[in-house]
Write a structure and sequence with these properties.
- It is a single chain.
- This protein has about 400 residues and is of the alpha+beta class.
- It has a single domain, classed as Thiolase/Chalcone synthase (Peroxisomal Thiolase, Chain A, domain 1, 3-Layer(aba) Sandwich).
- It is about 35% helix and about 25% strand.
- The protein contains 13 helices and 17 strands.
- A nine-stranded mixed sheet has the order 5-4-6-7-1-8-13-12-11, sandwiched between helices. A three-stranded mixed sheet has the order 3-2-14.
- A hairpin with an 8-residue loop joins β9 and β10.
- α7 crosses α8.
- The longest helix has 21 residues.
- The protein is globular, with a radius of gyration of 21 Å.
- The structure holds 3-hydroxy-3-methylglutaryl-coenzyme A (HMG).
- The site of 3-hydroxy-3-methylglutaryl-coenzyme A (HMG) has 30 residues, from α3, α7 and β12.
Length: about 400
């Protein structure tokens, strides 16, 4: 290869400059077949419904069918993105989850197969509690700065499971968000800088031998608030925007009231008044999907973004603040600016359908689904066909999960 050809090739593959804008080009989410209204849980355990509806701000929780898991949800979220844009240019799929189904194989490899993506793809799974999808987004942005012709498919998929009859039970949920990250994005440009915060705390964790998470509820709320303050301090020190520049804030929402607690804490710690009308205005639209889906862990903050974009009048050119928190704990505060013309690219009708199509179940059915476990002895097991979604977990055989595409 001549010197001049080599230098042209190198210019093309490192074409990114400081002016390359990178961000979320498309966003789609999927949730489960079933939904449990909080009224049913309250009736069973004798809780005053105001505690759920007002105290934690939750109306219902998505419940996976026996043949749904993080793979089927992730594939269902991502399939419309591949249908709209094709697979060209997608050279990386990052799957973020904390409800992993395998200690070695990335769940994204199953999604890659179900979606028929090309073999020339890099697939990896990322984990840090609910923060994983933001790490995936930043990983994607770095890759695209290196080669702006590439796109990265980020899939955040989780099933949140706490012990039955525990305080955490009311904050369960399940969903997947898929985002196509690219140069010149159609929805949201993600900005530098980011505010970062890590602290070694045991507020919420799930040892490898457990299905359900362990949590110290009140400690977890305190750890989240401490992280909000820490990320904002770092964001400001890195030269970020002032607080008043943001038109809305998307918080990680383990339950929607947590976003309100977090935002008030941010305002107070930054020396601002907490005007409740302004707080409601900054957060109100971001909670609509999380209030009826429940905690979707890694997907939660991006469900907040979906709800905001789908419902706001017009956010063109507006900066939105993102606060991603993952127990344990790692958090990041960053900003995104909404791109002109974004409304033509939204999936509002499909998102409403994903929520409205869920079949309401009673407490007994939910409890039976919660108690179900897959065999661990390698025997053949066919899962009951319950989901009507595009992908299903057909069973398990020889310790291998078997997926089906409809
Ligand atoms: P709890 O102890 O059952 O509830 O658990 P409570 O007594 O704290 O009450 C909750 C709120 O309801 C309170 O409001 C009550 O006053 C109110 P607050 O004082 O907080 O403003 N209340 C009522 N309101 C109206 N009418 C009534 C009524 N009764 C009470 N009748 C807790 C609550 C969230 C701790 C529990 O559900 C839990 O442990 N959840 C799981 C942990 C969690 O979600 N933590 C959040 C921060 S950590 C995080 O976000 C990370 C996470 O997503 C995991 C990850 O990163 O991977 C969890």
């Amino acid at each position: 290869m001549s010197t001049s050809t080599a230098s042209t090739a190198s210019t093309t593959s490192t074409a990114s400059t400081a002016s390359t804008t990178v961000g979320i080009h498309d966003l789609s989410f999927a949730t489960t077949e079933f939904v449990l209204p909080h009224t049913a849980l309250a009736e069973y355990n004798g809780t005053e419904i105001g505690k759920y509806h007002v105290g934690i701000g939750q109306q219902s929780m998505s419940v996976p069918a026996a043949d749904e898991d993080i793979v089927t949800l992730g594939a269902a979220a991502a399939a419309p993105i591949v249908a709209r844009h094709g697979a060209d240019g997608i050279r990386t799929l990052v799957f973020a989850t904390e409800s992993s189904i395998d200690q070695a194989k990335a769940a994204g490899v199953y999604v890659h197969s179900l979606l028929g993506l090309p073999s020339a793809t890099r697939v990896v799974e990322l984990k840090q509690a609910c923060y994983g999808a933001t790490a995936a987004l930043q990983f994607a942005i770095g890759l695209i700065h290196r080669d702006p012709s590439q796109k990265v498919l980020v899939v955040a998929s989780d099933v949140s499971k706490y012990e039955l009859d525990s305080p955490g039970e009311a904050t369960q949920g399940a969903a997947a968000v898929a985002m196509l990250v690219s140069a010149d994005p159609a929805l949201v440009r993600i900005e530098d800088p980011s505010g970062l915060f890590t602290a070694d705390v045991m507020d919420f964790w799930r040892p490898n031998y457990r299905d359900a998470a362990l949590v110290d509820g009140q400690e977890s709320i305190g750890a989240y608030l401490q992280a909000v303050q820490g990320t904002w301090k770092d964001y400001s020190e890195q030269g970020g925007r002032p607080l008043e520049a943001f038109s809305a804030f998307c918080y990680h929402q383990p339950f929607t009231k947590m976003a309100y607690k977090a935002h008030r804490h941010l305002l107070n710690s930054a020396g601002h008044d907490t005007d409740e009308t302004a707080v409601k205005q900054a957060l109100g639209l971001t909670t609509a999907y999380n209030a009826v889906i429940g905690n979707s862990y890694t997907a939660s903050v991006y469900l907040g973004l979906a709800a905001l974009l789908d419902q706001a009048e017009d956010l063109t050119g507006q900066p939105v603040g993102f606060l991603s928190y993952g127990s344990g704990s790692v958090a990041e505060f960053f900003a995104g600016t909404v791109v002109p013309g974004y409304r033509e690219h939204l999936r509002t009708a499909e998102h409403r359908t994903a929520i409205e199509r869920r079949q309401a179940i009673g407490y007994d059915r939910y409890r039976a689904l919660h108690e179900r476990t897959l065999p661990t002895d390698g025997s053949d097991h066919a899962t009951p066909a319950e989901t009507t979604g595009p992908f299903r977990l057909a069973g398990i055989s020889g310790h291998k999960r078997l997926y089906e595409k409809r």
